[in-house]
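Q: what sequence does this backbone want?
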């Protein structure tokens, strides 16, 4: 088949690679434009665009999916389009551009966790299972009919990063079979069933740890915001990003610190506390709690707070 591929984040790269290694023809890779990133605000290519440029694919990076872009896509005469973590609304005239429409890969068990942050929200909510859904894109946000669904267990120590890696692999391993089954009429899309849950984008306020909340939820929050944007707190007026933590049994006031044998624990709402295992002080790399304590003046009775 003649394919146009739409993708932006690193989650999409294994699917693009699987397509490239198949017998299908990638006509064009469509990705988001470069954006300012880092302290210097240097224009940076999104991961899919960088991969496409390195491997010699024809690439298009329109600000808007309209006008000249649509006309160019029409001249390519695609049979199918595949969208994986593209990150923008697909207009109606784009959805109708190819005879088979647009197959979208979404990292959840639809209709659960439609929207921008399905992996993060599933971990935050303490879910035991998620998965990968292949759907036909329609006018809604992840509301189209399902072609195939592949469940995956959420492990107790999963971060958004580790779970995303597994789901990305599942997507790439099954993409070609789903495409070919759908195009041959062997896999017929069916309407989504069940109650919809929406996975809203993570807000700036959410990334701060509120020590009045129970430790079990804060531990999930640390994993859900790892590797990015990082769960945050403040100590002595300075930022700390918490990279890894676990529930512990020190009953102290919320935010109060207990130092014990090279580790430190922070009081939470309820009876338990949170042991900090790894953290990243401002302008430094990730380090263990023991490494941090050797250089910090932290002591039992001090407090962690939010900004």
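A:
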């Amino acid at each position: 088949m003649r394919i146009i591929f739409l993708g932006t984040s690193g989650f999409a790269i294994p699917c693009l690679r699987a397509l490239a290694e198949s017998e299908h023809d990638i006509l064009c890779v469509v990705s988001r434009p470069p954006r300012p990133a880092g302290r210097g605000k240097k224009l940076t290519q999104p991961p899919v665009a960088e991969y496409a440029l390195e491997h010699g694919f024809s690439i298009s990076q329109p600000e808007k999916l309209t006008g000249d872009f649509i006309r160019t896509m029409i001249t390519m005469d695609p049979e199918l389009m595949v969208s994986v973590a593209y990150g923008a609304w697909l207009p109606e005239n784009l959805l109708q551009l190819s005879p088979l429409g647009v197959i979208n890969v979404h990292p959840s068990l639809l209709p659960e966790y439609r929207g921008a942050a399905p992996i993060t929200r599933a971990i935050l909510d303490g879910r035991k299972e998620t998965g990968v859904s292949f759907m036909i894109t329609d006018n809604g946000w992840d509301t189209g009919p399902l072609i195939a669904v592949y469940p995956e267990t959420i492990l107790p120590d999963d971060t958004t990063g580790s779970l995303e890696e597994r789901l990305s692999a599942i997507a790439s391993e099954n993409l070609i079979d789903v495409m070919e089954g759908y195009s041959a009429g062997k896999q017929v899309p069916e309407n989504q069933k069940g109650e919809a849950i929406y996975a809203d984008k993570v807000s700036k306020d959410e990334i701060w740890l509120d020590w009045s909340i129970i430790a079990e939820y804060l531990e999930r929050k640390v994993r859900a915001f790892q590797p990015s944007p990082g769960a945050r707190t403040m100590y002595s007026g300075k930022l700390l990003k918490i990279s890894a933590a676990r529930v512990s049994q020190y009953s102290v006031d919320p935010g109060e610190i207990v130092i014990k044998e090279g580790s430190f624990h922070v009081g939470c709402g309820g009876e338990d506390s949170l042991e900090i295992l790894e953290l990243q002080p401002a302008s430094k790399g990730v380090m263990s709690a023991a490494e941090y304590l050797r250089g910090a003046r932290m002591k039992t009775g001090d407090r962690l707070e939010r900004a």
